[in-house]
Amino acid sequence: MDEYKVGDISSFLNSSSSEQKATNDLFSSNTQPLVSVEEVYVKPLVEPVKGKRPKKSKPVEPEPEPEASKFPTLSPEEKLEIDKRTLFIGNLPLGYKRKQLRKLFADFGKIQSLRFRSVAISDLKLGRKVCLKTNKVNENATCKNAYIVFDHEECLEKALSKNGDMVNDHHIRVDRVVKSKQQIKDDSKNSIFIGNIPFAATEEDIRSALEQCGEIEYVRLLRDAKTNIGKGFGYVKFVDSSGVMFAMKIKDTVEVNGRKLRIQRCKSKVTLENTKKAKELKAKQKDEAKNNFRGRKSKSSDKEIFSGKFTKSKNKKFDSDKRPSKKNKQKTMSKQKFDKKVNKASKKGGVVKKGKKEKQ
């Protein structure tokens, strides 16, 4: 490196070399900047709110199409058509399986669907589906119900012949789901209502208690849907009405599990509806009579009736000329009075006529 000599700085500043010109051109006012100010600072389109960050807009996702449900909605006509082909089977043994039931009714026609109902579960908190899958069934329950849907109504008519058959010491009840009004009337004629039944009683207990009355077609006990415990009442249908007559004679002596049963005649829904309508009509007539009743406050019509302007029976003006006179009225007397007068007249020598006395 060269040593510093006196006068080197001044000679460098006063020199007119190319380097000096470049430095002067750089700081001169005529030179244009390489980048414009507008390009450096760009004003934002939306000024951000102080203290809050702008929310990022989420991309809109298209809504998923609804999946086709396993059970499509049916019209009332379609539901009625299916119900006409549906068979109800009651009082089935609790351990009876689907294959066994299908085999029992396979001879009557093609089965479209089969389902069990009224199965008593042990734990209500878990729910019915979980309990059925884990086989948590109430041990005290003895029976369950089922429904079978056939392809044709003719198959259902044939399957009704299985009513009353024995399946594992149980008399099964086979019946239609949809009944006509005439069928409901016929059922009520040959049926009785039974109350005060023990909750633990079964259909077989009721059947054995009333077998002496006649041949029983079916026994129906109403049970709770969740626990399958009896509600304390039910119905018994006999083959003939003679069974109903005999049951009414011995109604005060029938007992089940040490409990006296309450037996009554069964009334159909049609007769109950008619009696209900008749009661409502009577109540309306009573209300109308109360509203039309004239109390202590007399009205103008009452005064006119009692003053003689109007008659009470016919709402017409009363004519005094048409009033029957006492003279024109024919006198009448009883037979005893007439006989007394005849005896008196015969003693005096006169003749007595009804209403008049004539002397000879």
Written account of the structure:
- The protein is α+β, with helices and mostly antiparallel strands and 360 residues long.
- The chain is 33% helix and 18% strand.
- It has 13 helices and 12 strands.
- It has a 4-stranded antiparallel β-sheet with strand order 2-3-1-4. A 4-stranded antiparallel β-sheet has the order 6-7-5-10. The protein has a two-stranded antiparallel ribbon with strand order 8-9.
- The longest helix is centred in the C-terminal third of the chain and has 24 residues, at 269-292.
- It is elongated and about 205 Å long.
- 12% of the residues are buried.
- Mean pLDDT is 76; it is low at 295-299 and 354-360.
What is the straight-line distance between the termini? 201 Å
| Averaged pLDDT | 76
The coarse silhouette is elongated
What percent strand? 15-25%
* Helix and strand element order: HHHHEHEHEHEHEHEEHEEEHHHEE
Strand arrangement within the widest β-sheet reads 2-3-1-4
> Which class of secondary structure composition applies to the elements?
alpha+beta
Biggest sheet layout: 4 strands, antiparallel
Low-confidence runs (pLDDT<50, min 5 residues)? 295-299, 354-360
Please report the total strand number as a whole number.
12
* Rg: 53 Å
Number of helices: 13
Q: Residue share in helices?
A: 25-40%
